[in-house]
Amino acid sequence: METPLITGAFALLLITISLLQPLARRLGLAPSVLLAVVGTLIGISATYLFYTNHTNRFDDFAQVFADPPLNSEMILYMFLPLLLFQTTLTLDIRRILEDLVPILVMAVLAVFVATAFIGFALYPLAGMSLVVCLLLGSIVATTDPVAVVAIFRDIGAPARLGRIVEGESLLNDAAAIVIFVILMGVLTQHESLTISEAVIAFGRSFIGGLIVGAILARVAVSLLSLMRDLPLAQVTLSLALPYGTYVLSDQFADVSAVVAVVCAGTIFNLYGLSRIQPANWQFLHSVWEQLSFWAASLIFLLSAILIPKLVAGFAPIDILLLLVVIVAALAARAVVIFGLLPMMSLFGAGQSVSNKYKTVILWGGMRGAVTLILALSVSEHAVLSEEVSGFVTKLATGFVLFTLLVYGTSLKPLIRLLGLDRLNARDEALRTQFLSLALLDVRSELKTAAKIYHIDENVTEEVLKGYEDRAAAAASETNKLEELKDWDRVRIGLIALADREQQLVLEHFHEKTISGRAVSRFLTLTGRIGDLTRSDGRSGYNKATRQPLKFGFGFRFAQALQRRLRIARPLANRLADRFEFLLIYRILADELIDFNNGRIRPLLGDRVSDILHDMLCLRQDETIQAIDALRLQYPDYADVLESQFLLKAGVRLEETAYDEAKAQMLIGTELHRDLLSDVERARRTSHTRPKLDLGLKTGDLVGAHPLFKDLPRKQQKAIRRMMRPQFATPRERLIRRGDRGDAAYFIASGAVEVQAPTHSVRLGRGDVFGEIALMTGGRRSADVVALGYCQLLSLGAHDFKSLMEEHPDLREHVVELATKRQLMNTDKAEHELEDPVVPQFSDSPSQDNQVSQEIQQREADGSTASSQSNPPDTTETATTTLKIEVKEEITVTETIEIPEDTPPAESDTETSAEKTEKKETASG
After folding, report:
1. Helices 569-595 and 635-663 meet at what angle, rounded to 10?
2. In terms of CB atoms within 10 Å, which of 294, 736, 760, 770 comes out highest?
């Protein structure tokens, strides 16, 4: 074929695609339906013109469409990587991961169910082997969710429902192609596979694809930082990634190329945002959206053009077999949607979906270009017989046409029949109220504009009268809002707050005051807030907004690495991320309070707005408390982060000023470019987050601790070898009552609360806890909980014993503290009845007995002293000093991380004076 003819045919296809888009919108059809119809007509027309005897004038041009210069492999390699990669870029990956279980079940398990249903239903009637029938089942198991997702967005369906359908389709294609490749290998190589061998082959191909895609994507993401100011280079690298991944996986690694590309796109979406500037990320998305539109349209149109060729020789028996495929596919999808989805919802692994939405998902199971290309690859396979290839291609193509022409054209009427296109009572009431206020605002602004532009008053009054009438008509229906229950109106306000918060996050990202590392987490959070608010109302909003203030699994894991392996870097990174997150979270809360007062109050009234204001203030207070807890521990780091945030805002304002000056022709292009280079250097500096030093160096902690700072350096060095630094978070339980004592803890900074059965005592810097059980060999007599962020030095039982033996003066002081502590922790009557304890330091029983006797003697002395009316001055002075130190450490951290519905502890209801009095009394 001549190149000009191919180029002209390509241009004709592009023109057709561009014209079909507005036509599909006007007709209310999915574009894929029109593409299939028009492509089929083009294929029929080209075939007629090429083979007819009436004229030979159009033979060369018609041959391009009747016998395209592309085979199935070329179409797959050209278009499929683009489609898969762009789909992953548009998904909210972090939200998808939250629903990974239902998506995997809907995708992978649904493919197996559909393949089995269709294969076993055809096997008794088709006269083909079971493998051929299963091969057809795997081909038609793929779904095209584009039309369904677009309709969901139009009718305001839950966003989570749309994500599940999109995620299902993405992995659905991958799983179906893996099964297709395995079955094709069985057919063409004439090798039999047992069920276990097939499962292993599937797992190797699927998991291998994940590994290859993840490795290549991480390499590509690491290269993005070299192209920070070069958006064209970044887009080029992103374009090379899916093609390189597909070829490497398919031709060299022998794993699923589809799975590898999906995994590569997921990793690129997760980590690429933090390596690319906001404007460049938007540019990359725009380019990929255009590429995907071309690829999706061309692959569908080219596949549709081949439909007449694929269905050639369609016989009456094939109609019966096609009906079997249709019924089996519909039954398989119904089993998954109406059977598996409710089961997942029952076990909390998925969202509860109404039967109306399930019906739409069931009827929206259209098949698309992937099914057609897989069918085309079967028809082109030289090893397969014509009988087998004809059977597969005819039924697969007929099934695609049926789903597009029947499901695609009837989906919107079905939605109207189910009433899913109508506003609910809440939205209808809100619409009238908002419309009334908006029209009045527009009327006022139009009146001002008419005066500025000197428009005749008669003309102005006529235009304004129309807006006034519309506003009055809307206002007459605003009583619908008053008819709603209070919780409905509060939910409306909370949904508005959630949507506004997501918009604020995007604005801060575009203004470059939020880093790419943080914006993805905030977008995930705001999406979760919106979903839980829509499903659970006020309780859902509170749950979602308080969740990020807690310490998740990642933080606990980093903390465990520090404690057990002394690897502090992950914990420092987690704390730094938390610091940055809380600062931005506080700013968002401030902006939401202003939004509530300025926009929601006129719309929903003072009563609802006051409720929302109280909720936002509570959220703000909890965030500030969490920030202050960190600030007490790391004040310098907090100052640096806040300074960087201001620098980011300053850089943005500076850049805006230069852009406006260039737009007003005050400066030239060269000067503007030079100024922006300085801005970019300042921006890089402001986005370079400082490293957080946890201050967990054992030598520094031992040297600064009041118990050890006066010891000689040689003795401090010996103690350092025994100690292990430990970091504690607010409300973390460090010691549990009743456990065996295995370590003592020295507080280097922070504060803890010793929760005895009858009262609580707070300890601060310089104190020791957990030593009593080590000295007496008994069990823990109280719980110990961290009140804020704490830096501790832990000492194991054996090392504690050695330390006490080597340093008699230190042992004397610790014994004195232990005596006071045991009096504090134990009720007197209960203490007198306590059974004798057996010392656990068996290596030196005499020494242990001596320590135990000292404790008992001091307990007796303390009991006698506590009964005297005037305690010695030295004890009172020591107790008062301890009280002052603790107060300085825990002033702000007392209420950190208290759950919403947890009643306050008994100690929290006591006043500071009462606690001090109880502590002094216990100390004697």
Report:
1. 60
2. 770
Q: How high is the pLDDT of residue 614?
A: 93
Topology at the third CATH level for domain 72-413? Na+/H+ antiporter like fold (1.20.1530)
Residue 559: pLDDT above 60? Answer: yes
| H or E element at residue 227 | none
Alpha-carbon distances, residue 486 vs 399, 519, 533, 578, 612 (angstroms): 50, 34, 15, 35, 12
Distance between CA 851 and CA 857 in Å, rounded?
A: 10
Instruction: For CA atoms 136, 137, 140, 144, give the dihedral sign.
Output: negative
Three-state secondary structure of 296-343: HHHHHHHHHHCHHHHCCCCCHHHHHHHHHHHHHHHHHHHHHHHHHHHH
In this predicted model, which residue has the larger pLDDT, 283 or 158? Answer: 283
| Phi, psi of 752, deg, nearest 5 | -130, 165
**Other Cβ atoms within 10 Å of 154 Cβ, number:** 12
Q: Answer whether 638's CB lies under 8 Å from 579's CB.
A: yes
- CA-wise closest residue to 815 among 861, 771, 864: 771
Name the 3-class secondary structure at 784. strand
Burial class (CB in 10 A: 0-12, 13-18, 19+), 565: exposed
> CA-to-CA distance for 382 and 384, rounded, in angstroms?
6
- Domains 72-413 and 698-923 equal at CATH topology level: no
pLDDT band at 610 (very low <50, low <70, confident <90, very high): very high
Residue from 85, 123, 457, 130 nearest 295 by CA: 85
Strands 743-749, 790-796: pairing is antiparallel
Residue-wise pLDDT tens digits, 405-452: 888 788 778 877 887 767 666 666 666 767 777 787 888 888 888 888
The values of phi and psi at residue 566, to 5°, are 60, 30
Domain extent listing, the chain: 3-66, 72-413, 425-483, 486-633, 698-923
Distance CA 776, CA 767 (A): 19
Number of helices (H) and strands (E) in the chain: give both, helices first. 42, 8
Pairing of strands 783-786, 752-755: antiparallel
Q: Whose CA is closest to 675, among 694, 691, 656?
A: 656
Residue 157, token pair as written in the block = 């369906």
pLDDT at 592 over 90: yes
The candidate with the shortest Cα–Cα distance to 554, out of 532, 531, 578, is 578
Model pLDDT for residues 176-205, shown as the tens digit of each residue? 888 888 888 888 876 666 777 777 887 888
Question: Can you tell me the distance from the alpha carbon of 434 to that of 471, in angstroms, rounded to the nearest whole number?
Answer: 10
Q: Contact at 8 Å (CB) between 900 and 546?
A: yes
Amino acid at 315: A
Cα 387 versus chain centre, distance: 49
Q: Per CATH, is 698-923 categorized as 3.10.100.10?
A: no
In the chain, the N- to C-terminal Cα span, in Å, equals 104
- Residue 867, pLDDT > 70, answer no
List, in order, residues 6 or more apart from 343 with CB less than 8 Å away. none
Distance (Å, whole) CA 626 – CA 891? 13
**CA–CA dist 756, 822 (Å, integer):** 10
